Amino acid sequence: MIRELLFRDLDGTYLTEPRTVIEAAFDEPRYLERVPALRAVVTDDSARRHHRYLAVVALASWGHDPVYPVVEGIAEAGRRSPWFNTLVAEDRDGTFPELAGAVAEGRRFTSSAARLAAVNALIGLGDEVFFGWPLRYAADEPGTADALAAVLDRGLDRTDEPDFDRNAQLAALCSVLAAHAPERAVEPARRLLRRDSRQLVRLYLNPVVPFRA
Fold first, then answer.
1. What is the pTM of this model?
2. CB-based contact 211:189 (threshold 8 Å)
3. Helix 145-157 and helix 166-180: axis angle, to 10°?
4. Alpha-carbon distances, residue 76 vs 15, 90, 120, 122 (angstroms)
5. Cα–Cα dist 186/174, whole Å
6. What's the pLDDT at 212?
């Protein structure tokens, strides 16, 4: 079923990437007629894990409010989620970056509390798993300051060795916090700089604590 829903355009042409269909819906509302069938895939325990995940990504991208609690649950499970490592790119998990990008794109369709709750749940994983730019993109909106401040505080207290560049990711999130609550970003930025003064970290934090050579 997922092949018909996310790998076929309105003309019946089969595609290699579901992203083509997902992005086409931003300008062509007829794709949204596929929402009920995609919801059925998400709730079908017999469907392939990857297919269910793609349905979640599509629905989150299209602002379908009932799917955001599912995203929130995935975020709360984190690395324990059965969907962790559903997508792998360059030897690292791509599941959460893709989800963050989808929830961010959902703002084109909805400004619901459910979507914001999903964003904040994903932010809460910012010290635990790699996200890259999609989490920064998703977090850059009003209503995320508390979640950003919390993940910065927790991440800066951690002493374990991550399998991704945690300091750079936290610095990127700190720069987003500065855009929405500048007074709350200064102390985390200073703590980060005391820990890591690499150019990449300084670049993210320069708007918060200007670097002086």
1. 0.94
2. no
3. 150
4. 33, 24, 10, 8
5. 9
6. 64
Q: Per-residue confidence at 210, pLDDT binned at 50, 70, 90?
A: confident
Q: 10 Å Cβ neighbour count for 10? A: 11
Contact 198, 160 (CB under 8 A): no
CA 174/CA 141 separation, integer angstroms = 13
* Length of the chain counted residue by residue: 213
> What are the Cα distances from residue 11, in Å, to 8, 26, 44?
8, 17, 27
> How far are the Cα atoms of 23, 50, 103, 131 from residue 60, in angstroms, in the given order?
12, 15, 5, 17
- Beta-bridge partner residues of 88: 93
Q: Is 147 exposed, middle or buried (0-12, 13-18, 19+ CB in 10 A)?
A: buried
